[in-house]
Design goal:
The protein has 377 residues and is mainly α. It has 16 helices and 3 strands. Strand 2 (25-28) and strand 3 (31-32) form a beta hairpin. The structure holds s-citryldethia Coenzyme A (SDX). Residues 5, 183, 186, 217-219, 221, 252-259, 307, 309, 312-314 line the site of s-citryldethia Coenzyme A (SDX). S-citryldethia Coenzyme A (SDX) is lined by residues 5, 183, 186, 217-219, 221, 252-259, 307, 309, 312-314.
Length: 377
């Protein structure tokens, strides 16, 4: 019997992340996400995912140097981004730009472990610059040159907003990247592994992943959450009325529910915690208060309906990213900035122990028909 959406189907083994959906727990390579988000940087998580252990100081310093020195865009890429329509969807723009990066890589099709590791660092360095540069160009501002001495989170906020972010904002951005880096066999990771399974190149696999993450049921949900918050805010309808009406119409409250979690997504818990601190600094807790009201109604309603639907990673990231000055329609692209580390780590696994991923399907169409001449059809 076909499993719709591959629910519950184990399609392979990984050493990268494990999710306990009932307990609401997530680990990366043996470390609890809570411990990582509080105590290590995004660059340390990149090293952990790519190498199976946390880095020593010298290794971290070298990775930071490599990432910083590979952040700048080559002139042809800048010209390409200038040619993009200013109203292009940011995830469509990112998907196209990453695909184009492959054209300028003379050994794009080299899928040896050494080449893949080199390209994983390159892509993780380039994606934040692509997102920030696309945004500045569409806003009519000149792109800024990256500052290699800054970490990934700090330089992204600088490239995006044109000014250095406060320590609180950088810490919040960095922790958000840690929380979004990896999540097992989610849809975009799976699509990347299917592409790599044919021995296609890394750029094609990451392009597949970005196209998949773009969907509103996956990485696109955080943009939809912000749309929902603004819609409720402008509607004059109370959060309770809005949620009840949405549920009664059979709609989805974005940022809630998950294929695996049957408890609160631990990343949502962390983001809610982080939101307090960064809101205090900004002085604007409006979206967070509205989010809390929506959550309270959903908790009550889902309990009444006997459904285990809880906030997921996208629900509170919307408020946190807004407070960091990230425009709403860039939220999914920010998700991709983090997840490119998880995607490339999964691809190192896939290419190292590859078998073409080709499931079966259950044929339910007609059989035994005979072709009639077209005049008789
Ligand atoms: C991410 O997979 C990952 O790991 C993804 C991710 C990652 O890090 O990579 O965690 C990131 O994608 C988080 C999820 C972001 N998406 C959203 O917030 C979109 C809203 N949520 C959903 O549409 C839904 O919850 C999914 C798609 C996330 C999961 O859906 P499933 O597992 O396919 O479950 P389903 O659609 O079959 O729903 C089961 C029931 C249904 O009710 P019934 O038809 O059984 O009566 O739960 C209901 C659904 O209507 N339901 C919701 C709901 N989500 C599910 N009802 C209201 N609001 C919701 N958000």
């Amino acid at each position: 019997m076909a499993s719709k959406g591959l629910q519950g189907v184990v399609i392979g083994q990984t050493k990268l992340a494990d999710i306990d959906g009932d307990a609401g727990e997530l680990i990366y390579v043996g470390y609890d996400i809570d411990d990582l988000a509080h105590h290590v940087s995004f660059e340390e998580v990149c090293f952990l995912l790519w190498n199976g252990r946390l880095p020593k100081q010298a290794e971290l310093t070298e990775l930071q140097r490599q990432l910083g020195s590979q952040r700048a865009l080559r002139p042809e890429m800048l010209e390409l981004l200038r040619a993009f329509p200013r109203d292009a969807d940011p995830m469509a723009a990112l998907r196209t730009a990453v695909s184009a990066l492959g054209l300028y890589d003379s050994d794009a099709d080299d899928i040896s472990d050494e080449a893949l590791r080199r390209k994983s660092i390159f892509l993780t360095a380039q994606v934040p610059t692509l997102v920030a540069t696309f945004h500045r160009l569409r806003s009519g501002a000149e792109p800024l040159p990256p500052r290699p001495e800054l970490g990934t989170a700090a330089d992204f906020l600088y490239l995006l907003n044109g000014e250095e972010a406060s320590a609180t904002r950088v810490k919040t951005m960095d922790a958000a990247l840690v929380l979004h880096a990896e999540h097992g066999m989610n849809a975009s990771t799976f699509s990347a592994r299917v592409t790599a399974g044919t021995k296609s190149d890394l750029y094609s696999a990451i392009t597949s992943a970005i196209g998949t993450l773009k969907g509103p049921l996956h990485g696109g949900a955080n943009v939809e959450v912000m749309h929902m918050l603004r819609e409720i805010d402008e509607s004059g309808v109370s959060p309770r009325e809005w949620v009840l009406r949405t549920l009664d119409e059979g709609g989805r409250v974005m940022g809630f529910g998950h294929r695996v979690y049957r408890a609160v997504d631990p990343r949502a818990k962390m983001l809610r915690e982080m939101a307090d601190e960064v809101m205090r600094e900004s002085g604007d807790a409006h979206w967070l208060e509205l989010s809390d009201q929506i959550r309270a109604v959903m908790d009550e309603e889902m309990q009444k309906r006997g459904k285990k639907i809880y906030p997921n990673v996208d629900f509170f990231s919307a408020s946190v990213y807004t407070t960091l000055g990230i425009p709403m329609d860039l939220f999914s692209a920010v998700f991709a900035i983090a997840r490119v580390s998880g995607w490339t780590a999964h691809l190192l696994e896939q290419y190292a122990n590859n078998r073409l991923i080709r499931p079966e399907s259950e044929y339910i169409g007609p059989r035994g028909l005979t072709v009639e001449p077209i005049a008789q059809r």
